Amino acid sequence: MTPEIDYAELFEATPSPYLVLGPDLVIADVNAAYLQAVDRCRDELIGNHLFDALPANPADARGDGRGSFGASLHRVLVSGKPDIMAFVRHDTLKAGGLEDYGERWWSSVSTTVLGRDGSFKWIIQRIEDVIDFARYRPRSLFRAAAPRRGFQRANHAGQLSVH
């Protein structure tokens, strides 16, 4: 007899960082790997809007994590299809807060989770810290990606509430 699978246990134990969002971008759940990746406690995230829980670094004019992540999540909500982002800078507060941000680069895959009736239920996002790769990749790759990011920001401006 095959033992019953405890999916909550699997979610919590997976080594990949996962975040679960509602359609309003309020964080519904995270796994232990996600908490470790963003250096936060569960109660700092659950029930909070994504961009309130993980605010952008106000001192970093180059980083566009909020805009890029917001546009990606908008594409997922509109299309119902997965959206992949290879390199996005979104600095995170270091443990202890106090407006001390650490440079962070992320790769993410976001997708919808549908209910049995086919209706939208959740967005699940897997992130990966790619700072080591981002620091050592040729600068020409950053420049090549810049026009696309600019187009995405212009194309999606105002289409997603990121308050």
From TrEMBL:
<dbReference type="InterPro" id="IPR035965">
    <property type="entry name" value="PAS-like_dom_sf"/>
</dbReference>
<feature type="domain" description="PAS fold-4">
    <location>
        <begin position="11"/>
        <end position="131"/>
    </location>
</feature>
<dbReference type="InterPro" id="IPR013656">
    <property type="entry name" value="PAS_4"/>
</dbReference>
<protein>
    <recommendedName>
        <fullName>PAS fold-4 domain-containing protein</fullName>
    </recommendedName>
</protein>
<dbReference type="Pfam" id="PF08448">
    <property type="entry name" value="PAS_4"/>
</dbReference>
